[in-house]
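New here. Your pick:
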Amino acid sequence: MEKKGTYRTINSISEGFYKEKGSKFLAFAVPCKTEEEVKKHLAAWRKEHFQAVHVCYAFRLGSDKKVFRASDDGEPSNSAGPPILGQIQSFDLTNLLIGVVRYYGGTNLGVGGLIHAYRTAAKEALEEATITEEEDHCIVELLFEYDQMPAVMAVVKAIPLQVEEQQFELSCRLKGTYPVSNQQALAQLQDLKNVELIEHGIRT
């Protein structure tokens, strides 16, 4: 069972393929963390595969898996998007988009045939993927004076805090993240004297 704040996803793009009665189904599984990323991938697939009749897809986002959507993109209702989403759920994955591009082969497959085709193509892509376990991260910002830097950096190194932004002048600023499972990190940061600690929530 997953710990709170952890989730399973894929670490890179993977592809699947299925062919039935001349129709070709090209599946692409892509790690995504935002709906903006999803839109960019869909736009790129539609541009690259402009001769395809359908670009159906499903995605699920967040460690809580509460954000998801499935699209049939003109195929009969529930014959494409839901079977793709079903594979994401079956593999227990999130932060993931699967798109299946269909090139029509001249023969109608029927709803049952379409469900099988889209499900199989999506499954092929996931079977080719490398699945990893990831973890949510807490985002924090530290504001302090320059002469406090040695003490601050000692704690940053001990946590360890993954530094994303830093500014070292007379007044210093440092922004970074640490895994939610590191329960001691916040206490260590709060113990720093004369350092303003700003918490910016959780990043999946």
About this structure: The radius of gyration is 22 Å. The chain has two domains: 6-133, 136-203. Helices lie at 35-48, 81-90, 110-127, 149-158, 185-190.
